[in-house]
Amino acid sequence: MAATAAPGGAPAADGAPGDGVPYAVELRGITKRFPGVVANRDIELRVRRGEVHAIVGENGAGKSTLMKTLYGMHRPDEGTILLDGRETTLRSPADAIAAGIGMVHQHFMLADNFTVLENIVLGSEPTRRGRLDRAEARRRILDISDRYALNLDPDVLVEDLGVGDRQRVEIAKVLYRGATTLILDEPTAVLVPQEVDELFGNLAELKREGLTVMFISHKLDEVRKVADSITVIRRGTTVGTADPKTTTARQLAELMVGSELPSPETRTSTVREAAVLQLDGVTVAALTGRPAVDDVALTVREGEVVGIAGVEGNGQAELVEAIMGLRALTAGSIAFAGQDVSGWSTRARREGGIGFIPEDRHRQGMLLEAPLWENRILGHQTRPPAVKGPFIDRRSARADTERIMSEYDVRAPGPDTLAHALSGGNQQKLIIGREMSAAPKLLIAAHPTRGVDVGAQSAIWELLKDARAEGLGILLISADLDELIGLSDTLHVMLRGRLVATLDPASLTPEELGGHMTGAHDGSVGAA
Amino acid sequence: MTALRRLGTSLAAPALAVVVALVITTLVIVLIGQNPLTALQVLVDFGDTPAQQTQAIVVILNRAVPLFLAGLAVSVAFRMGLFNIGVEGQYRMATVVAAGVGAAVVLPGPLHVLLIMVVAMAVGALWAGIVAVLKVTRGVSEVISSIMLNFIALGTASFLLTGPLRGSPEGASIITTERLPASAQFPALNGLFGALGLAQPRGQLFGFLLVAVVVGIVVSVLLKRTRFGFDLRATGLSPSAATASGIDARRMVVKTMLISGAIAGLIGLPDLLGRTYSFGTEFTAGLGFLGIAVALLGRNSPLGIAFAALLFAFLDRAAVPLQFADIPASVVTIIQGTIVLSVVIANEVSRQVTKRRAGRQSGQATPPAADATGPAGTRIDARQEAGA
Q1: Given B234, B355, B388, which is nearest A367 (Cβ)?
Q2: H-type helices in B84-167, by residue range?
């Protein structure tokens, strides 16, 4: 592996790389604590002048905390920051800007009804006799635009710009203030692939002009494409540096999560005879036109994972809601563990043993403004440990929340923390923990790893595999083809509300599956 | 520690709102050319003799009881995201019918009072139930329908008062229902002053205070400690998540409106059973709307609402003495109005602060960019090694 275990091999004592030029940015032993949590611990980071330096890590690894330290948004509890070899104290973003550090936030901070020029100069306007000197501003902006090939038109309103253009305005804003080191926080998260390429072009220009770019991301392929060097952060500390030219994305990912990555694959079949879910002719009306779900029949057995593949919007969401009793059937029947549950309420279905991981956890899975223990009992408020008769059993609910937090590695200060303080992966692990705690017979898992990072993803896969081995039937809806192929025992393809193909995941490539999903293989629909 | 801090945050907002309201009112009083200090003096001057002082306390408590009930009625609906603007109509209908029924039957004491309470709660619930049914079956916004039903309630109450339930003689200047018999009158709590060694006030302290306290405790337990209360709050926080968790949202709307309406039905009873003994054209109006303000100020928690009701009652008491000091009584209304306005703003500010603090606790400053590093062990690693 090309990644070294830890930075430290290089001559570090004088804060300079071998060639004698000091590092543009050097962090030594940075530690930042928040109540109950150490967000950053002994961070070591060295960024050479004129390079694109990527900082990668899972969601929640502490990247943003680190960048906020560097941008003066808070002060570290321990450690020193060296800029160009000089020890520096950053008390506020203004200090950071004065020291030549600029930050391009993930969420743009632009006034829509201002022009590009007005947005760029906002806060540091050139003035002449007390009035905004537009000519001077325009001259400087066009100069920046030309020098770094940003292609800006100073007179367009920002509201008329696309996302990529807005990002360039943000970059220009930072350059206008004289930044020589730019921090880009997940800059590609909001861009489409073509815009990503343009951004990388801009970064190359910046680098050519001698500026330093720090690039935060967890998209490993992009990082390898654009970065000159990479620092990996795991659980709040830097765990190593890597050379993007000789490191594979997989090696980087392993460095990020701290061990070899598991694959979603499950090969030994645990499928049993008894069916837990049988859909027969299930049809759900749409607001207009053809039914959202059209005559769907499928069976999920104990210990079986049945996957549903499909381009989003082909009726998967409606099918899930129909199974959970959130949407009425116009025809067909749903049998759960041998009983017809078509007329049952959602609560009756949940009490009967159907677990539910909704696709949009904020909309259907959590009360964001409620504490974790209340989220623990959401959907289970009719059963122990949530209740004692008609009363909520707060003590047991809290205790059980703590159990879930430790068993499912939900990282949060405690059961009284509000749900929105958790990262997406931790929220998802709490949801999965709570659904599993009710010992369901059937689990409806809609996009169980959507929006969670690599570490949480593999943990969730393991949980699903373990549950399957113990006889849980799982209906898996996902847009992640590797996940579908890897986890499923049977795989159906859903297209325009119908199941158009049943495939064997053991001998299927993502490319073939993709073909079925778009209807390219419609002619070859065979097995039922 | 955290509980204390949370309490601090939740008290800070209303306290700030009251201060802002006082500043604005001071400005208003200065603008109309009066001395704000005089007004302040009047506000806190409860009289010279012990009897006058206890009387002031009685006036405040007697005013606070219906305000508290009104605030509770509004807050129950608020907690699940329903705006019951119709409390005004609900209590007017409930009071006129209860007054009519109470005067028409003969029963021994406690039973008579109980019957009147049950009738009032039933009528209030029924009137609120119309709103719920319209919302559940026809999708009518409860704000619109409850406002409209307020007008219908006022009209209907007038009709009942002047028609079938009229008790006052023909040609009397104040039209009332028939006076309730002695068995239907709620005993006063004046014995309390004697027991505490205080001077006997001129007026009577509403015995209904005890009912209000019980209702407050019941509502508090219901909301915080029961499954039903959890369902209700969950629906208020996120209707979609509540539905997905198995809560029947339509049934919750109906149940919540019935409870809200039943509490609203009680609002008129302290006055009816403790002072006027009949419903009439002069009967206290506007309590339903004040209830919205009280619920806002009390942040929808029963304890908070109790404090808010006391504050409003304290201000209301000064309305008459202020006029003696040549200051318009509407100063009180101005204070109340600005308190409500500033409390809405202060609540939002404190919500943001709590949110940010919650975010910081898990090591992140902005909610969307989740960056929480837990002190967690090596759980993931262990799992992955097992799986790899």
Answers
A1: B234
A2: 87-104, 109-138, 142-162
Q: Is B72 helix (H, G, I), strand (E, B) or coil?
A: helix
HSE, side-chain direction, 13 A CA sphere, residue B99: 34
Asked whether the beta carbons of residue A382 and residue B387 sit closer than 8 angstroms, the reply is no
Length of chain A: 528
Q: Which residues of chain A have pLDDT under 50?
A: 1-15, 523-528
The complex scores an ipTM of 0.76
Closest CA to B264 of B79, B143, B93: B93
DSSP string, A111-144: -TTSBHHHHHHTTS--EETTEE-HHHHHHHHHHH
* 3-state SS assignment for residue B68: helix
B173 touches chain A (CB under 8 A): no
Q: Choose the CATH number for A51-73+90-257 among 3.30.9.10, 1.10.1740.10, 3.40.47.10, 3.40.50.300.
A: 3.40.50.300
Tell me whether residue A5 is exposed, middle or buried, using C-beta atoms within 10 angstroms of its C-beta: 0 to 12, 13 to 18, 19 or more. exposed
Looking at residue A19, its pLDDT comes to 62
pLDDT on residue A35: 58
Q: Does residue B365 sit at the A interface (CB-CB below 8 Å)?
A: yes
Count Cβ atoms below 10 Å from residue B45 Cβ, excluding itself. Answer: 14
pLDDT of residue B384: 33
B237, B251, B373, B385: which to substitute to probe chain A, counting the most A Cβ within 10 Å?
Answer: B373
Please list, in sequence order, all residues whose beta carbon lies within 8 angstroms of the beta carbon of residue B170, skipping any fewer than 6 positions away: none
Q: What are phi and psi of A467, to 5 degrees?
A: -65, -40
- Write down the pLDDT at residue A399: 92
Which CATH class, in words, describes the domain spanning A262-353+440-522+524-528? alpha beta
Residues of B with CB below 8 A from A462's CB?
A: 383-384, 386-387
Q: What is the pLDDT of residue A322?
A: 93
Q: How far, in Å, CA of A312 to CA of A360, rounded? A: 13
Q: Is B367 on the interface with A (CB under 8 A)?
A: yes
0.95 surpassed by pTM: no
Per-residue pLDDT, A263: 61
Q: Do A59 and B370 touch (CB under 8 A)?
A: yes
B358: closest chain A residue by CA? A421
Q: Which of B2, B244, B362 sits opposite A412 (nearest CB)?
A: B362
Is the distance from CB of A205 to CB of A35 less than 8 angstroms? no
Q: Do the Cβ atoms of A411 and B376 come within 8 Å?
A: yes
Q: Which mean pLDDT values do the consecutive 10-residue runs of chain B (388 residues) have? A: 62 77 86 85 85 90 96 94 93 95 89 95 96 92 93 94 84 86 88 84 90 96 92 91 90 94 96 91 89 89 93 90 84 84 80 65 38 32 33
Residue B199: closest CA among B188, B208, B190, B189: B190
CA dihedral (B11, B16, B17, B21) positive or negative: positive
**B245 touching chain A per CB within 8 A:** yes
Q: Is B285 exposed, middle or buried (0-12, 13-18, 19+ CB in 10 A)?
A: middle
Collapsing DSSP states into helix, strand and coil, what is residue A31?
strand
Q: Which two tokens stand for residue B339?
A: 């308190």
Mention every residue, 6+ apart, whose C-beta is less than 8 A from residue A271: A301, A302, A303, A304, A489
Whether residues A390 and B234 touch (CB distance < 8 A) is answered with: no
Task: Report the residue of B224, B226, B247, B362 to disrupt the A interface, i.e. the one with the largest count of A CBs within 10 Å.
Answer: B362
Measured distance CA(B192)–CA(B204) in Å, rounded: 11
- DSSP summary character for residue B307: H
CATH 3.40.50.300 range(s) for chain A read 51-73+90-257, 262-353+440-522+524-528
For position A60, what pLDDT does the model report? 63
